[in-house]
């Protein structure tokens, strides 16, 4: 997960959970053009979406926009590429205690393709509530359920990889096996002090991906690729790819596809 160039390159897959969500649902966000605002982008990665998309959406004068990520290499890349007086990127795990300077600081909090990595969903939303001003708004999407995480389980339990895997459930969404994922998430969000404006479960189907597309995607998001010794890295990725579904009706090499269920949520702090 520390490959900012590859991560940024995987636009076709990542845009489903970010740009497409903005295009469909940003109209839910209300703005007061006369007030300076502060914005957080949780899971900002290499920073391109924060800089190229989020910062352009607001009519208000922006006092501060902060990209938050747990990866030091991602944050370093983002700051060197996009950082300026108003836009900065910081290493911060939102499951942990909120830094004092960010308590009741943000008017808007966004996150795309990130929250499925966080196991303690209750603490996550309590912390986000603490970061936001009263009546602050949040819009986010994240993977609810995906075959990719079942593939992780199949590969990571193999004897040759087991010594390098500290947690076989790393990154698996809390709702992967849930029978009522929307109901569970709704309860967590409301109990954390938010009023839900919208909660949806969207079915995403991304097709016509090449072997190399998927290979680069898995390298960019897999938490254990970098922990593998050099002689196992290639085989580790190829073992994932052998389980990725392919479309029998599409001729040629570009017939890989990925399906997943994705939460999309808009809510306001009470």
From TrEMBL:
Q: Which Pfam families match?
A: Methyltransf_11
Highest taxon, organism lineage: Eukaryota
Instruction: Write out the GO MF terms.
Output: S-adenosylmethionine-dependent methyltransferase activity
Spell out the SUPFAM superfamilies in the cross-references: S-adenosyl-L-methionine-dependent methyltransferases
Which segments constitute the Methyltransferase type domain?
41-140
Q: Which InterPro entries match?
A: Methyltransf_11 (IPR013216), SAM-dependent_MTases_sf (IPR029063)
User: What name has this protein been given in UniProt?
Assistant: Methyltransferase type 11 domain-containing protein
């Amino acid at each position: 997960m520390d490959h900012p160039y590859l991560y940024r390159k995987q636009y076709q897959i990542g845009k489903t959970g970010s740009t497409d969500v903005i295009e469909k649902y940003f109209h839910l966000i209300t703005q007061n053009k006369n007030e300076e605002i502060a914005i957080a982008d949780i899971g900002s990665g290499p920073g391109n979406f924060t800089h190229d998309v989020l910062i352009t959406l607001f009519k208000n004068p922006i006092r501060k926009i902060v990209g938050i990520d747990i990866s030091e290499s991602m944050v370093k890349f983002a700051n060197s590429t996009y950082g300026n007086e108003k836009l900065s990127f910081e290493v911060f795990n939102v499951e942990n205690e909120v830094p004092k300077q960010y308590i009741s600081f943000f008017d808007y909090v966004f996150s795309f393709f990130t929250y499925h990595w966080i196991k303690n969903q209750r603490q996550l939303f309590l912390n986000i509530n603490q970061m936001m001003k009263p009546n602050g708004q949040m819009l986010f999407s994240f993977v609810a359920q995906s075959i990719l995480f079942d593939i992780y389980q199949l590969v990571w339990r193999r004897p040759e990889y087991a010594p390098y895997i500290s947690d076989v459930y790393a990154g698996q969404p809390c709702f992967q096996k849930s029978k009522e994922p929307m109901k569970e998430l709704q309860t967590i969000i409301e109990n954390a002090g938010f009023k839900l404006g919208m909660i949806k479960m969207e079915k995403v189907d991304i097709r016509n991906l090449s072997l190399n597309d998927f290979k680069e995607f898995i390298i960019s998001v897999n938490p254990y690729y970098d922990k593998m010794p050099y002689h196992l890295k290639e085989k580790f990725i190829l073992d994932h790819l052998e389980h990725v579904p392919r479309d029998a009706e599409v001729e040629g090499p570009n017939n890989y596809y990925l399906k997943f269920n994705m939460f999309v949520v808009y809510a306001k702090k009470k």
